[in-house]
Amino acid sequence: MPLAYAELENFYEGLVARARSRGIPCAITSGMACVAFGVAQATKDCDLLCAPDLAGEFLKLLQESSLGGQGPHYRGHLTAPLDSRWLRGGWTSHFMWKVPDLEAYLDVFGVAPRGSVPWESDVAGFYAGLHTVAEMKRTNRERDWPFTTALGVKLLEAGDPRGWLHLFNFEVLVQTAEKLRCPETMVTLRPALALLTGPDERLELALKGEVEFWNRLDQLRLKVYERAVRPYLLAVKADVRSRNPSLEVQHEVRLEHAESVLPTSPLCQYGIERLIAEAKDQAARFLPAGALEWLPDARGCFSFLAE
Question: Could you give the number of structural domains in the chain?
């Protein structure tokens, strides 16, 4: 019988519960968190944040975790090893369980992409908090942006003013401003919110500028990792041991090649300031003049990466 979504949800939540019982901070984020918060439909994929320093302990837990009678294995040759050095540098480790009629996926992060606060301080039950999930949804995928706004609305409904930072839909933002006052602290963090007074006719342009900037920033971020991973990908793919069904052996192979050719923190090596500047330059090519005048300071969204 195929595993239903509820069974997968229970499996992943159980994984978090067992990890925490061993002193490993972790939380489910992204798509499955959006489902839990009521802003998305079911997904079989699970993104999980794990304290980087305890990556080795979490790997041991994964080795003991079966789903439908099947154990996990690394997904493909592209994935970085589940090791604290690479998790701290922003890499993701990809796993899967191949169950009859279903492939269940688990992606493990140590650092929340675009996260401006420690994710460990922003947790709701088994899940990362609304603010962390909303920041992670500022991707280069158009389908993610409605979730960002929906999560922002949820934050405001819960009395958390950080919801103002995530409203990217013009109509929703204006309607919200008619009912609530935007605090100056949020305007400081997101300058475009200053255009709510009136409202200023430039507000819609500013929102388009923000979205395009975050899109370009995410695209460039991914390209940095894609370039850095190529030698590692080729090395792992050529190593016949990588196809061993044992997760322990798969990990040893990936760790061996990572220590030789995979930089631990390619974004820091590339330069955060450089990355942001290039994202602005690229966004400016597709926007009317002035659209980028109200961008926030994005440097804080990389402050938790280890160099």
Answer: 1
